[in-house]
Amino acid sequence: MQIMLGAFTVEVTRKRIRNIHLSVHSPDGRVTISAPMRTGMRAIRAFAVSKLSWIKTQQEKMKQEACVTRRDFTDGECQEVWGRLCPLRVIEAEGADEGVELVGGQLMMRVPFGAERARRMALLYAWYGAEVRREAGGLVRKRERLMGVKIARVSVRPMKTRWGSCSIKARTIRINSELAKKPPACLEYIVVHELGHLRVPSHNARFAALMDKYMPEWRTLRQELNRVPPCVESR
């Protein structure tokens, strides 16, 4: 059974359930609804219409994820920067000073003629690290004051499985440079999370209460990060 919502089709299945459930499926953005057996089509359509904005948001995210699946670091390719997709503009010149900068929504990469993929990737990831370092410094100082903690050192590096980590004994925190791809609030969430472990080492009810106090939206941000885990390109 199907219903039409604007330009896309919704597949409807009736099941022995209590509530209507709507899902957007990766990678193509297909939309399905599971509805209780006795729910009428008018109610199902009304429910789907009420979720149109959310559906479009999820489909757009899937398009963006598909855009960055292939990474050759060539001119015109999409790259993630602080939660947005930015086209990469590669400028090749003899004796060019290598570097990356964000200019008017474009990532400008300067490389010598013939620079290979590995070199372009290294330049971009070095820039990601510098971005996270720059933003994290101010966030850590602000949150240290608010949370009543003090750390000895912050380090930024690529990590394959974690967005951040904390050494309670050394009073240091480590932050994943991949966070430069995510919305800025995700970086602040990781800073608060790791600083929070200096007060509450475990992920228990006290830690959850601490997070509720200092970053009420932390659960939403955690879901955002868990949706697409760290993905460090192989060198």
Secondary structure layout plus pairing:
Blueprint: E1 2-5, E2 8-15, E3 21-25, E4 30-36, H1 41-50, H2 52-67, E5 78-81, E6 84-92, E7 99-103, E8 106-111, H3 117-147, E9 153-157, E10 164-167, E11 172-176, H4 184-196, H5 205-214, H6 218-227
Parallel strand pairs: 2-4, 6-8, 9-11
Antiparallel strand pairs: 1-2, 3-4, 5-6, 7-8, 10-11
Give the tally of β-strands. 11
Quick one: biggest sheet?
A: 4 strands, mixed
Main sheet strand line-up: 1-2-4-3
Overall pLDDT metric: 89
Q: Which residue ranges are poorly predicted, with pLDDT under 50 across at least 5 consecutive positions?
A: none
Instruction: Estimate what percentage of residues fall within beta strands.
Output: 25-35%
Architecture overview:
With 235 residues, the protein is α/β, with parallel strands linked by helices. It has 3 domains: 2-67, no CATH class; 78-124, no CATH class; 129-227, Metalloproteases ("zincins"), catalytic domain (Zincin-like), CATH 3.30.2010.10. 38% of the residues lie in helices and 26% in strands. Strands 1-2-4-3 form a 4-stranded mixed beta sheet, covered by helices on one side. Strands 5-6-8-7 form a 4-stranded mixed beta sheet, covered by helices on one side. Strands 9-11-10 form a 3-stranded mixed beta sheet, with helices on one face. Helix 3 crosses helix 4. The longest helix is centred in the middle third of the chain and has 31 residues, at 117-147. The chain is flat, with a radius of gyration of 22 Å. The termini are far apart. The model has no long low-confidence stretch (mean pLDDT 89).
